[in-house]
TrEMBL record:
Native source organism of the sequence: Luteimonas rhizosphaericola
Residue numbers spanned by region Disordered: 1-29
Gene expressing this chain: flhB
Record-linked NCBIfam families: flhB
Protein function: Required for formation of the rod structure in the basal body of the flagellar apparatus. Together with FliI and FliH, may constitute the export apparatus of flagellin.
Protein name per its UniProtKB record: Flagellar biosynthetic protein FlhB
Family: Belongs to the type III secretion exporter family.
Subcellular location: Cell membrane
InterPro entries: FlhB, T3SS_substrate_exporter, T3SS_substrate_exporter_C
One of the Pfam families matching this protein, by short name: Bac_export_2
Keywords from the named record: Bacterial flagellum biogenesis, Bacterial flagellum protein export, Cell membrane, Cell projection, Cilium, Flagellum, Membrane, Protein transport, Transmembrane, Transmembrane helix, Transport
Annotated TM spans: 34-56, 90-112, 151-170, 190-212
Length: 383
């Protein structure tokens, strides 16, 4: 599929995840016009605020620079330090302007998309070396839009600058007749006013460019319907993968249960549909379920229990109640304490029974009531 066809298919607005991924890659809307206005505007405002001190300092500097020092002729090695000192004195009043411009460099990106350091943008992209893509960038729609903005920028700044010069033409002609102090103050005021007017002209461009850059940024990140479905599937999880994970987890759980069956004290059966294996050791508050299953799993639990000589008791009501109300590796519910205690008591009596020494212990049938307790009339003696 060609790139133009892909652009035609991208009809859906970008999701929040796509915008977040773009920000992580350093792809945020940027407006060159806003940056120019911020830097130049802050510098001009700083110049207007410090115009008095800048003018006085410039006047003093000029006097010092034009003053002739005969000692410099006798010591040529002092010329370089003297020139450096003059440059340093000239740069001192410009420090507020530099700090204001530096602050504007930070504020302009924050107004658009924030300041972000994206390490991915520093990685080499050999796709940019493609001459075909480079030709498309140079002669594409973005380059045409940048050319239009540049022409408007030049026209606005040139027009405003020409208008300011024409408006202050009479003041410029009178400056040679004025005193040095008045000429410097007037020149600084005229320059700051002209720069402020140019900032206003650039602000008009910025008001147009900022919404346009936001629109262009979202247009580049538009998605196809298939990309939306893929992202939703990724967010919710691939159904096939989730099913496979559940299958593996179920197999691992079943394997752990089967490994725990030989350690059980008793397996309660239904007799073939349900099986629950329980273990009780001194120190436990209540018996713990170590395995449970239905149908084929129930038969496998029973076979493994018989193989390791674990007692198997057929108690259908209790088996159903244990299966539905208990969890593997957890204690049995409180309401089943009495019924399970009677089953364990029967198992312990059966272990202690010796053939030929009295009748074999027997456990009468009983029902598990609605609350999980055995029916008091089932004939099983309480422990």
């Amino acid at each position: 599929m060609s790139e133009e066809a892909q652009k035609e298919d991208r009809t859906e607005q970008p999701t929040e995840k796509r915008l977040r991924d773009a920000r992580e890659k350093g792809q945020v809307p940027r407006s060159r016009e806003l940056a120019n206005v911020a830097v130049l505007g802050c510098a001009v405002l700083a110049l207007k605020a410090t115009s008095g001190s800048v003018g006085a300092h410039s006047r003093d500097w000029m006097r010092d620079a034009l003053r002739f020092d005969r000692a410099l002729l006798d010591a040529p090695d002092r010329l370089l330090p003297h020139a450096a000192a003059l440059v340093g004195k000239l740069a001192l009043p410009l420090l507020p302007l530099l700090f204001a411009a530096l602050a504007a460099c930070l504020l302009a990106p924050m107004a658009m998309g924030g300041i972000r350091f994206a390490s991915k943008s520093l990685q080499p992209d050999f796709g940019r070396l493609n001459p075909i893509k480079g030709f498309a960038r140079v002669y594409g729609a973005e380059s045409l839009a940048e050319l239009v903005r540049s022409l408007l920028r030049v026209a606005l700044i040139g027009g405003v600058g020409g208008w300011m010069v024409w408006r202050a033409f009479s003041s410029l002609l009178s400056m040679p007749q004025a005193s040095l102090e008045a000429a410097v103050a007037g020149g600084v005021d005229l320059a700051s006013s002209a720069l402020l007017a140019m900032v206003g002209a650039l602000a008009v461009l910025a008001l147009i460019d900022v919404p346009w850059q936001h629109h262009q940024h979202k247009s580049k990140l538009k998605m196809t319907k298939q990309e939306l479905r893929d992202e939703a599937k990724e967010a919710e999880g691939n159904p096939e993968l989730k099913a496979r994970v559940r299958q593996v987890q179920r197999q691992m759980s079943q394997r752990r249960m089967m490994e725990a069956v030989p350690t059980a004290d008793v397996v309660v059966m239904n007799p073939t549909h349900y099986a629950v294996a329980m273990q009780y050791q001194p120190g436990m508050r209540a018996p713990k379920v170590v395995a449970k299953g239905v149908d084929e799993m129930a038969l496998a639990i029973r076979a493994l229990a018989e193989q390791h000589r674990v007692a198997v008791v057929e108690a259908p009501p209790l088996a159903r109640a244990l299966y539905r109300q208990s969890q593997v590796d957890q204690e049995i519910p409180v309401k089943l304490y009495a019924a399970v205690a009677q089953v364990l008591s029967y198992v312990y009596q059966l272990r202690a029974w010796v053939p030929g020494r009295g009748p074999m212990p027997a456990m009468a049938e009983f029902d598990v009531g609605a609350d999980g307790a055995p029916d008091p009339d089932d004939g099983i003696p309480a422990r």
